[in-house]
Amino acid sequence: MLAHHEKPQKYIEVKPYSRIANSEFRARFAQKQLVAKEQIGIELILVTDKQIRVYPTLDNLKLLHRYSGFQSLTELQLSIIQLLNQWRKLTIQDLVRTLNASIGEILASVYRLLSLGSVNSDLNTELTLESVIWANGV
């Protein structure tokens, strides 16, 4: 399941690319989408293995998944959101220089915020200290 802080939840089903070419599968999946929407009110999205097995996207998603279980936001995470709302776009290194926290604390906070969808970055490039992050709506 994909859950963002202020956006509707969505279920994601991952299937091999070769399987989606089958018209019978596509028809069954379309029916599953209708049932999910009508019975539980959640959108069902189909993603292929080719879409997520792209380096570094898959590595980034695995990394962010590790940070998705925490519940409440810390003061540091709230400070990051506040800075991004003020400056719009910053690198992770900018946050390290600006906030009174270690690189590890900043990285963990940014990963958590990315996993929640509270901030964004280009996940098709490797996440580094030079990665640009921005607040939603920018």
Rg over alpha carbons: 18 Å
Number of strands: 5
Q: Give the ordered list of helices and strands.
A: EHHEHHHEHHEE
Beta-strand fraction estimate? 15-25%
Helix vs. strand class: alpha+beta
Mean pLDDT: 86
Q: How far is the first residue's CA from the last residue's CA?
A: 25 Å
By DSSP (H or I, 4+ residues per run), the number of helices equals 7
Largest sheet geometry: 3 strands, antiparallel
Pick out the low-confidence regions: none
* Helix fraction by DSSP (H/I, runs of at least 4): 40-55%
The best one-word shape is elongated
List the strand order in the largest sheet.
Answer: 3-5-4
Oligomer: single chain
Task: Supply the key terms.
138 residues; alpha+beta; 7 helices; 51% helix
Secondary-structure map with pairings?
Elements lengths: L9 E6 L1 H4 L2 H18 L2 E6 H4 L4 H10 L8 H13 L1 E3 H7 L4 H14 L2 E3 L10 E4 L3
Parallel strand pairs: 1-2
Antiparallel strand pairs: 3-5, 4-5
